[in-house]
Fold this sequence. Notes:
Rossmann fold; single chain; 10 helices; globular; 276 residues; disordered N terminus
Amino acid sequence: MVGTKCVEALSPRESGFKNSDVPINISLLTELQTTANGCRAPPPHDPAILRLADAMSTFQTDFDRIALVSPDGATQNDHYQDFLLRHLPPHCHEVLEIGCGTGAFARRLAQHSEKVLALDLSPEMIRVARERSTRFSNIEFQVADICARDLPAESFDCIATSATLHHLPLREILLQMKAALKPGGVLLVLDLFEPEGLSDWLSNIVAIPMSVTLRLIHQHRLRPSRAVRAAWAAHEQHDLYPTMRTVRKLCLESLPGAKVRKHLLWRYSIVWQKAI
């Protein structure tokens, strides 16, 4: 789902749920039983899956709330859409977006590909995305938990995700996306990192006024509304972001040759092409 750094914070902040603390076997999630309300109930003998399922339920609640009070999405993520689009493969047929939010990037992807499958955990985000995308017949929006969904092997020319991976077990989800790419397919990731060291903290001096300027340009206000600030502040209590060292280490292990880049606005990107 689309996420952003909390609108009042100066940098990503640690919280209780750590997405890299406990190794998660994502394939086990496909075996979970469905309860009457449609939620998946994790097996009680597996505390790692229980923890992840609880976190995903919390994230869904958070983003349903955010969609209702802040349907415009995150200007910090939107700022890097052109950068990501420059790395789309030629002749792009099937694209998957994980964490599509209100569909802003899915609509951009649809202009460069034949079909876009856009997934998000939040029903409210998907509702807004569908309302705003009626003129795009080549986008299919689905409410889905990527941790409990099997992706078909070697099926997508591009998989894109923005501000979503920090909610998920990073190593496992990278491998899942890697397997779902066609040979020659491209993985595009934009996400948030935890500042580490003096250079990262000094970058806040530039990032903070830049973030305010983008909000003023795109949303015509210096500060989000009180309801928006409250929704994001509540969500951030459940967020944790990896450091750049962690991201680079995982890419070295799972995505050899990936181009990992640090950006302003507390973002990093991964661009990786699967061998033909």
